[in-house]
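Shipment paperwork, digital attachment
Item: protein structure file
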Amino acid sequence: MNEPIQVAIMRTVKPGREAEFEQALHNFVQRSLNLPGQMGVNIIRPALGGGSRQYGIIRKFASRDALFAFRASPEYLEWNQLTVELTEGSGQAEELCGLETWFTLPGENLAPLPKWKMAIATYLGVVPVIMTLSLTLGPLIRSWNFVLYNLVFNACVVVLLTWVVMPLITRALHDWLHGKQPKNSHGANANFSESKIQQIQRSIRKGDTL
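Attachment content:
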């Protein structure tokens, strides 16, 4: 309950209401950032000329209690009522733990996955990587300073997992990991695409907020 939590929300703006939505969103974000437990907001706008009217809103909270308090706040309730007039359908909200990007193939949509499945898949990747490095890299750097040894060894673990091992495991266990993904009321998947998640990650690293 006391760990930070990140929530992704997707909203589709009604045709011709984009400018009005932008202004309302800007005002809401400015006011809501003063609420307790807020750790930042990132906005993913539709690409110019792409024809999309979908906005991604990523909010980070200090804890789940802060998220609950935010959803009960007058600022959020007023914003939620306003979005009824400016957007189509209801917003699609999903919690992101950060591991989902490891289990999403290029071109697919990012979706929350059962944590126990992600844990098993990660274990299947971590064990062979650590065993292999312990037999190959380990003996070569074992005489190094303890801190330097661990920095280098763990950096190699992360690199191999991220760019080599986890993509292989993701493909091998794809059907088991994902299963059927929910659809929204228009029959289209409401989750964020990988390209949008990469945009979100770049925005978070730069600290962009509204």
